[in-house]
Amino acid sequence: MIKEFRLPDLGEGLTESEILSWKVAVGDTVTLNQVIAEVETAKAVVELPSPFAGTVAALHEQAGSVVEVGKPIVSFEVDDAGASPSGVAGSDAGISGEAASTGSQAEVAGKREPNLVGYGAVVEKSGRPARRQRAFDGGAAEREPVREPVPGVEPVSAVGQPAPLAVPSETTAEREPTAEQERPRSTPPVRKFARDLGIDLELVKGTGPAGLITRSDVQNFAAGPQVQILGRVGAPAAAPAVGISAERETRTPIKGVRKFTAAAMVQSAFTAPHVTEFLTVDVTPTMELLTRLKASREFAGYKLTPLTIAAKAVLIALRRNPSLNSRWDEGAQEIVQFNYVNLGIAAATPRGLTVPNIKDADKMTLLELSTALSELTDTARSGKTSPADLTGGTISITNIGVFGIDAGTPILNPGEAAIVALGSVRKAPWVHNDELAVRQVMSLSLSFDHRLVDGEQGSKFLADLGAILSDPATVMTMI
Length: 479
Fold this sequence. Notes:
This protein is an alpha+beta fold and about 475 residues long. The protein has three domains: about 1-110, CATH 2.40.50.100; about 145-240, Dihydrolipoamide Transferase (Irregular), CATH 4.10.320; about 255-475, Chloramphenicol acetyltransferase-like domain (Chloramphenicol Acetyltransferase), CATH 3.30.559.10. Helices cover about 25% and strands about 20% of the residues. The chain is built from eleven helices and 19 strands. It has helices at about 80-85, 95-100, 105-110, 170-175, 190-195, 215-225, 255-270, 285-295, 305-320, 365-380, 455-470; strands spanning about 1-5, 15-20, 30, 35-40, 45-50, 55-60, 65-70, 70-75, 275-280, 325-330, 335, 345, 345-350, 350-355, 355-360, 395-400, 420, 425-430, 435-450. The strands form five sheets. Strands 9, 12, 15, 16, 17, 18 and 19 form a seven-stranded mixed sheet that branches. Strand 10 (about 325-330) and strand 11 form a beta hairpin. Helix 9 packs across helix 10 (about 365-380) and helix 9 (about 305-320) crosses helix 11 (about 455-470). The termini are far apart.
């Protein structure tokens, strides 16, 4: 019995994911819950478990392909036991080919049974109209959707891109598809990949079955000297000057974490009215406390940094200023006050900026917070942060000081009322006990949503945070 496994909705409300790598090959025997692939969503890298026990019959997508939720990615040959594993709610991760081809989306979703990691029907991307098919010419193969004409914009070529630069060895007429010609054979993800790189697939030779153009073919072509750089839609790129290489720019597809972060930051910047306040404080007592804690037996073997102390200080200051731990619910026209703190920590990773959060950080001791911070940063840098750890934050910290930066104007993480930026700790001349001395100072930046937090509340929070870092003993008067 052949069972299809369709790309599931991973519980993040996302409509597509990229297959980073396959952990199995055709013919491999797999067990229930065995990891079969690594999938990258816009938020995290997720290990995809097998919903069946059986043999891999086919892999429908290549590594590197961007796949819409609900599309089949792998087929399994299973026996009755593998098709209905005991203890699993539902036996089929997909639906029959007949239902997929003849039923409506609602009918398809209704026939799909649950699987181990969820499921989802194909959803149109937000703000994007449904695709319309171009009329076929002489039985030509699949076409790109019709593009609406834009006044003052040059018409695009038959493949939905501006005409590529001319190649001396062939004429434009030779490269344009005629009514008798089909478009180059490739999969939708490969066509998208080529468009993102500005490459005309008609110039690429396919090495796959029956001349199929693969992702590797596009990558190899892009790395070669014959690459043709396409301009923006409606504006063909000018030919490079004599003696100047055509490869003067690098184009990277906007996807994954970078795409998600960009959308989130734009939404936040133009939805929540940001206010940023700054405070520079003498943190010499905090740095001295840090030195003593590192030398203590209780913290032996634990990683303690200024971020650890600052995070604890933020949690204490938040008790006295709870309005900064809230959310604006536009739909319900309510202000949601959180009675817990999920502390977000901005982390720079090879995949881009992520903000995983520590659940119920307000209930942790300094030792527990130190452990949680270490685990969070290590997991984020390895790209293994789970989707659950990237959602539900209530307030965030960004430690720009590790890059040698003193202050900034951080943008709020969507759905949160405030974010604190920690500047670098520097030695500077400072008035201490009415005398000029060299002290260790730090600049604090606080951005907050002015719909939720008044200037007085934001200022009091920042003052409390500065007071704790200037003199940790001040905590005795706050708790």
